[in-house]
Amino acid sequence: MKKKLLIGLSAIGVAAGFWACGGGTVEPMNADDDFIRAMLNADEGGLQLSTQIEKAKNQCTEDLDCYNEMIKANGSELESSSSEAPVSSSTPVSSVKASSSSFMPFSSIGPIGPGNSSSSSTPPVQSSSSSETPLTGLGDCAPATETVELNTPTTWKFTRGPGLDITAISTVQFDWTFEDGTPTTSSVARSLTSGQVSYSKSGKKTATVKVSLATGSETITCSKTLQVNGIPITGCKCSGDNLQPDIAKGESASWILSGCTSTGANIISYTWTGATADATGQAATAAVTTKGEEVKGVSVAVANDDNTVVTVTCPDAKAINSDIPDFSISSTEDRVTFDKSGEYSLVADLPQGWHNSDQTCTVFCNGGNTSYSVSIDGITLSGVNYVSVQSKMQVAHTIGKYAMPVKVTLGSDNAPIECGIGW
User: Fold this and answer.
1) Domain range for residue 304?
2) What is the pTM of this model?
């Protein structure tokens, strides 16, 4: 009966972001109390405190019981002989004289907040009967996490929509229903998060939430589903087959998926995002057309016949152009100098037969006095001053304008690094 006035005044009871609890303790707000902050924050669509209190006072005149309570605080009371309050909504309540000590003192009202049992605090709105008015646009819901394992507790979350004023959340009742969940239902008030639920059956699960206000309700089917995994899929790895595709040669970026196992279940599908899979589903490519073009966010979802799905992330790729390389080398006397950390392309065009019939050769670098690292064509050289790796570089990669990926990390002294190819 007093809710119109009390909701407006409840903001005072949470001054400085704390609840005053009935037992005399003071507890900080948690994430579910964000609506209180918003009520006090005009920048987030809430009402400023003074405006809200004044509005609550005026609205109280429209409710006879509420109005009588307010008048009683000033020493008088109106008798009810009809269903309308004797003061119209246009009459400001400020015309009623009341001292600060007699008008709705908080010591007599009691604390307002979760867990308060005072008869003066606003109770949660309960779902009504057949007279309930259907509402729309109140919001949406989704699982708190996209994937969960069997019998592992999780929650669902509600997101407010344009049809639900943020100041009304303190009176909302949320009735959740979970497909195949334990428990199957959960009812909470004033909280955007459902109670905990777990699942004993794998697969995609849905949920609905009935959002009830004093003015009506809406039953919402969550727009996103929850993936409940069954028998695990392990060991998957996505690696780059060609992470520096050469557009001069018409190459594409490419990846390979390997190592996936699922003991007790069969892997049945591979679904790639950001790349096109081959017939096996375990390799994929992405076309590139310009030097420096990057391919990011490639991933593959692996599924088995026990409704388990795992998503494997793949490394990024970056296109090069061997006709316009970052660096080039055409003899064993050439040196390339890296003066910045980064990723580059190095085109090697040494003469045919320069290493006779040998299949491998040496790559070397000379840097500063602090530890540096250079990776050339997958061969890592790290250390200080002169470092070489013998019989690792493929001779076939040093001829015919072969483009090699290079990754450079300078030492802490930022000294430049010179590298070359030799016998």
Assistant:
1) 237-318
2) 0.57
